Amino acid sequence: MTYNFDPDRWFDLQRQALEARRAAGQLDDASFETELERIEARLDWMRSRLDHPFDLSETRRPRTSRPRER
Questions:
Q1: 3: DSSP letter
Q2: Domain residue spans in the chain?
Q3: What is the DSSP string of 9-40?
């Protein structure tokens, strides 16, 4: 499986959206900082999930054929 998700790009887009909302008067400075901390925490969580190998060792493989009868 290939992941094309870029968490840094996601963060940049989220931050730009926050900055646009602040510039439009929809967020004051305190709200901006709160929202920025929220997306920074989410970025950290995403990075922690992407930094681990994908483990299927506990997954059972389905049988593809029946065992031979003797």
A1: -
A2: 7-50
A3: HHHHHHHHHHHHHHHTTSS-HHHHHHHHHHHH
